[in-house]
Amino acid sequence: MLQSLSAQTRLLVVAPHPDDETLATGLLIQHVLAAGGAVHVLLLSDGDNNPWPQRWLERRVRIGAVDRTRWAARRRRELGAAMRVLGLEEDTATALGWPDQGLTRRVQQELPASLTTLRAVLDTFSPTLVAMPELQDRHPDHSAAHVLMRLAMLGRHVAATTWLYRVHGAPLVEDDAFAVPVDAEMQARKCEALACHASQLALSAGRMARLAARAERYRPLAAACGRLPLPWHPSRPAWPYLTLTIADAVGGGVWPWSRAPWVRSGDGDYWLPPSPAQSGEPRFAKLQGRLPSPWIFDHWGWCELPH
């Protein structure tokens, strides 16, 4: 796969939070630059909703709006330092400042405006290669970033190659996944870039080091195919506490599970009716709990529906 990298490569790295650019693509960025290509980092959120490291480092309990703004500025400075270590200038990044742990809500409530913003970045940079989270990443911001980018890339005159990465969850092991080659110098530079994200190392240094040490693997984007039911079978007692989100090129919608537009087959599977979107356009659904939880990672998650 890396044989295709050249001076004509224009890599867009989609990072839901500061540090994802290093953990997920720190080696790939170096390979593209070594080939003479260009790299741009699209930072979706500043990682401002990260209270426990902030409480620890700032010795405070309550985190207000002003405190979160200050933390966001710190994390963006850390991103700039990490980019310089990897060989990038700070002006090769676009920071959208969307809410940390709020990207799913953007799909649900602000989809058209969000897609307009993302398409402006795509049109300005014109990537030939996009590295972005895969749909099965367990962090809800990462999986929502996949949905937003897939829908934003619809209809572009020049389609970019898309490589998917996973930060949260088991490493990619699919047959079509591939690892980026690494040598000691490149890995050392990646670790140096990670050290710039000091706020994230305060309470999670071991976990972050393990993430940075594992192979940097990608899976080429492949469209869903076939007519498949929804992958979930929630028990009836759980119905009042679940919502279903559907997003496609036409828009997004959210329903309580009991009133969602599914139909049930005789064998107990759940199906969604066809979309008014054009045939071949991606369509996504997410099942999630309605009750607040201290656990930020997805239990049910997203699925891509057959086109």
UniProtKB/TrEMBL annotation:
Gene3D superfamilies: LmbE-like. Pfam families: PIG-L. This is PIG-L family deacetylase. It comes from Dyella ginsengisoli.
